[in-house]
Amino acid sequence: MKLLIVEDEAKTGNYLKQGLSEAGFVVDLVNNGLDGYHHAMTEPYDLVILDVMLPDLDGWHILKSLREADKTMPVLFLTARDSIEDKVKGLELGADDYLVKPFAFSELLARVRTIIRRGIQIPNDHILSIADLELDLTRHRVIRAQQRIKLTAKEFLLLELLIRHKGEVLPRSLIASQIWDMNFDSDTNVIDVAIRRLRSKIDDNFNPKLIHTIRGMGYMLDISE
Amino acid sequence: MKQPTSLTLRLTLLFSTVATLVLLSFGWIIENSMENHFELGDIKELKLIAQAVKKPLQTLQSEQDLPLLQQRFDDILIGHHHPLLKVINDRGNVLYSSLEFKKSLPDLPNFKSPNQTLVKHWKNGKNHYRIFAEQILTNNATPYTIIIAISTDFHHTFLNNFRFILWLMVISSIVVMSLMSWMAVHYGHRPLRQIINQLGHISSNELSTRLDPETVPSELSDLIRSFNDLLKRLDKAFDRLSHFSDDIAHELRTPVTNLMTQTQVALSRTRSNKEYLEVLYSNMEEFERLSQMIADMLFLAKTDNKINPIEMKDVDLYQEVQSLFDYYEAWAEDNKVSLTVKGKLQLHCNRLMIRRALSNLLSNAIRHTPKGQTVTITLDRINNCVSIIVQNPGEPILSEHLPKLFDRFYRIDPSRQRTSEGTGLGLAITKSIAEAHGGSIHVTSDESKTQFQIIIPI
Q: Which domain holds residue A176?
């Protein structure tokens, strides 16, 4: 997976590059609009991460030019602007997602993965599984080590989200917005409570433990020792 | 737009115009009545002379006898300050003419057989005369015309002098009155200038100054009162703003200090990986707090300043409350708090904002409800308003805190400043959401319950 980051702020750019490289992506970083445009036009990228405010050529112009040149790779905007018009403008021009600074890196990573996965045909499985845990989507059934486990509707959705993103850290804000449609940060530990309850049902009496707390970032479902 | 004419100029012009009109008409009336007075005097004199001439003339038998009357006429004329006299027969022949007449009024036409008496003003060169002509029938029915003229030069000289003085006085009065009205207006505006002067001295750190409405004329006291109100509002807003800046500085300083100290201490010597990890995690928490605070403050600024028009939709509030309950359910259960909602309601509003406002109120309520008790949300319509009440039992909030509860960064217990209770902006955000919908928020608290109520006009 090859990513292009167009970001003029050096520190942000370097950390994004490092973070995304360590997450397994091949990352090119350029620090101005013209270079960004040329790279995006000449090389095949799976995703372009664009800052809106750039020297030479701003993010919107780059996106517009790319779309006019029939380049269809997904584009994710990073911006310090946070107005609805800006969001609408970006999405109308054909951006795939929009992230307002300051953002959590785990949030960016989760969104990058979601966008890239969109492009790939996901096998339309009815059953998702990890280790000895099975999730039957059509019959809404969860089985671990041959035992049927009863989950509430929201717990089921939460587990599905975690399995679909297995091996990825999901920040609390992303979980809140995906499962409960709460698009603002709450000062409560609602997500922690929900995870604890889910954990008590699918992890407490079993081994290996599947749900992991990643301190300072969020939660991850994975097989690990 | 052009600035309207100054009040002083307006009033001065108005007064001057009125004074000019009044004085001019006075002058005109006086001048006319003076002239009238003299004219009447002249006519009276002329009639007397005519009467005197008439008597001997009526006894005249024939024209040939006229020289007999000459001496008589001369005597009459001498007795009346030398008027001029002419007697004309009906053929237009002059039968008698006093010496003066020929000398002074050679051009005067013979007013032939006037049917009635005639009074006329006549000017010969520089000299003015008043002429009187009358037809007289003698006892034997012969018509004669007598023309009498008296000089009015004396009157004219007097009238001219009088007119000159009169108009001089009128004009100087106009000038003096205009000047005086200007001074009066200027003087009358003195309280206004005093107020302006006082206001000019109010700087931003003297917004608590109030002007005394009793010390100004009653017309201005309303102005002073509204100005005081404006000052009060400004003072409050300014106060809140400067507190807000103080608070921001303080709220930001704490996490930044933590970050700097932790990082510097960590870097002061070589440490184990585990220790570095700890520092990074700890930094992470501070950064999250900072980031949350920035996001909240931006949200507040945008909502308060109405930068973006808010997108309104019909929202089923009952449904919204249910999904909030869904979200908070597990956490509430953990705290042994149950949640109920009463009433159903539709509201035209911004769904995300209302959800956020309700979420803030609900999470506060759950946090402050004792174990085993219930948070109740009541949806209701009161008159033309929608009322949303979030009510929880628990420790009462002291009344001194109630008005400040919606202030930014206000915390009831200052020692609990940086606990898990968020950025301290939750209720401020809730309030500004209510206000962005044209509504308001109120809080009451007593021994049994604490209640927040959002009222939004439909």
A: 127-221
Measured at the CA of B456, the angle between CA B455 and CA B458, to 5 degrees, comes to 140
d(CA B106, CA B84): 11
Q: Which residues of A2-36 are buried (b: 16+ CB within 10 A; e: fewer)?
A: ebbbbbbbeeebeebbeebeebebebbbbbebebb
| Cross-chain residue pair B327–A184, CB shorter than 8 Å | no
Q: Which of A102, A184, A187 sits opposite B421 (nearest CB)?
A: A187
In total, how many domains does chain B have? 3
Interface test with B, best of A187, A198, A217 (most B CBs within 10 A): A187
Does A189 sit within 8 Å of B420, measured CB to CB? yes
**Any chain B CB within 8 A of the CB of A153?**
no
pTM: 0.61
Q: Are residues A155 and A212 in the same domain?
A: yes
Is A83–B328 a contact, with Cβ atoms under 8 angstroms apart? no
Give the contacts of B61 (CB within 8 A, at least 6 positions apart).
Answer: B138, B140
Q: How far is CA B394 from CA B330, B331, B369, B445, in A?
A: 20, 18, 5, 9
Residues B299 and B314 in one domain: no
**Contact yes or no for A83 and B308 at CB 8 A:** yes
Q: What is the DSSP letter of B414?
A: G
Nearest chain B residue to A179 by CA: give it.
Answer: B327
Q: Do B257 and B360 belong to one domain?
A: no
| ipTM for this prediction | 0.73
Q: Which of A75, A100, A119 is the last residue of a domain?
A: A119
Alpha helices in B335-425 (DSSP H): 351-367
One digit per residue, the tens of pLDDT, for chain B of length 458 reads 678 888 888 888 898 899 889 989 998 999 899 889 988 888 888 888 888 888 888 887 777 777 777 788 888 877 777 788 888 877 777 778 777 777 777 667 766 555 667 777 777 777 888 888 888 888 877 788 888 888 888 888 888 898 899 889 988 998 998 899 899 888 888 888 888 888 888 877 777 778 787 887 888 888 888 888 888 888 877 877 777 777 778 778 878 888 888 898 888 889 999 999 888 888 888 888 888 888 888 888 878 776 667 788 899 999 999 999 999 988 999 899 999 999 998 899 888 889 999 999 999 899 889 999 999 999 999 888 999 999 999 888 888 888 888 888 877 766 555 544 567 888 989 999 998 898 999 999 988 899 999 999 98
Spatial distance between the Cα atoms of A92 and B394, rounded to a whole number of angstroms: 49
CATH of the domain at A65: 3.40.50.2300
Q: DSSP class of residue B93?
A: -
